Please model this.
Amino acid sequence: MAKALAALMLGLCIALSNFAVAAEKKQPDWAQLTPEQQQILAPLASDWNNFDNKRRKKWLLTAKRYPKLKPEQQQRLQKQMHVWAKLTPEQRRIARENYKKLTKQPPEKREVVKRKWRERETAKQPAGIGGPAAPAKPNSDKPTTPTAPSGPPR
Model:
């Protein structure tokens, strides 16, 4: 019985070590991405090689899903990546914190925040045009920070 248990433990250790090695697989640098991945992830090009493996993997999964999205979803994702790429590291940190806080809120409070966010985005759009939103005009010299992130970046 003890030998069987020891063999089982050894097998589990080997399996888990193989799993850990697979999980730590280095994600590709920008130059190693396919042309299609580079086209989809173009707004992130300047930051890509600074991303950790976890973040690169997340974006690669997003790029894999991208062709299956409806055209309006693709446009929205591209817009969100452009907005995210323009944020400073501090603004990104704040956006991530706000996103984490939002996910801990009850569903009805999340819906209120999402509705306000959508209204704000709609108000930025030029009248009668369904194209990209007009840039926000800051109230001061400080850069503006979003109150809630508009996309999947984490």
Remarks:
- The radius of gyration is 21 Å.
- The CA atoms of residues 124 and 135 lie 7 Å apart.
- The longest helix spans residues 2-23.
